[in-house]
Amino acid sequence: MSTPAHLWLEDENGSPIVGSCTMPTRHGSIELKSFSHGVTIPVDPSWGKLTGTRIHRPITIVKEFDQTTPLLYRAVCEGRVMKKGIIKMYRILESGIEAEYFNIVMENVKFTTVAPFLTPNGMSSTHLETLELRYEAISWKYTEGNIIYRDTWNDRCCT
């Protein structure tokens, strides 16, 4: 069964950047084919002692080419900052219904890479692109129980 993730974007003025998804509850979003992100903290390899503050890696996503593709190229080429980005993740409940269970909210999003690619041997039915994005602030939310953590990458922490 599918466990999809979708991205909603707002441009620098707060206007939605409309993706190609036409599902009623996700209309205008961008369906993600792949998603990767990490936060690390440097440690001394011998002693395990923390040697610095956390490092936010870029969020890397893969999506199909759509009407947002030229807008995302423009964002990279002109260094535009998107006001907000929200990634919503869904899972299948025991009842068979698909429900959002986790979301990531990013503020002041900067796209830093757009890289189109074709999968070998026609493994994908369409053209794909990899995007990397960074942000000034991020919130991770587990919707069941409303468990949230927010971080601003340039705030001092853990020293």
What would a concise description of this structure say?
The chain has a single domain (5-152), classed as Hcp1-like (Pnp Oxidase, Chain A), CATH 2.30.110. Helices cover 6% and strands 47% of the residues. The chain is built from one helix and twelve strands; from the N terminus they run βββββββαβββββ.
Mind explaining what this structure looks like?
The chain is globular and about 50 Å long. The protein has one domain: Pnp Oxidase, Chain A (Roll), CATH 2.30.110. Helices cover 6% and strands 47% of the residues. Strands 1, 2, 3, 4, 7, 8, 9, 10, 11 and 12 form a ten-stranded antiparallel β-sheet that branches. Strands 5-6 form a two-stranded antiparallel ribbon. The N and C termini lie far apart (43 Å). The chain has one helix and twelve strands. The protein has 159 residues and is mainly β. A hairpin with a 5-residue loop joins strand 1 and strand 2. The model has no long low-confidence stretch (mean pLDDT 92). It holds the Pfam family T6SS_HCP. This is Type VI secretion system tube protein Hcp. InterPro entries: Hcp1-lik_sf, T6SS_Hcp, T6SS_Hcp1_domain.
CATH class: Mainly Beta
Average the pLDDT over all residues and give the rounded result. 92
Shape: globular
Give the low-pLDDT segments. none
Number of helices: 1
Gyration radius from CA atoms, angstroms: 17 Å
Structural class: mainly beta
Q: Main sheet?
A: 10 strands, antiparallel
What is the terminal-to-terminal distance? 43 Å
Order of helices and strands: EEEEEEEHEEEEE
Overall helicity: under 10%
Let me know the CATH homologous superfamily: Hcp1-like
The name CATH uses for the topology is: Pnp Oxidase, Chain A
**CATH architecture descriptor text:** Roll
Assess the beta-strand content as a share of residues.
Answer: over 45%
Overall tally of domains: 1
Task: Give the oligomeric state of the chains in this entry, treating copies of one chain as homo and distinct chains as hetero.
Answer: single chain
Total number of strands: 12
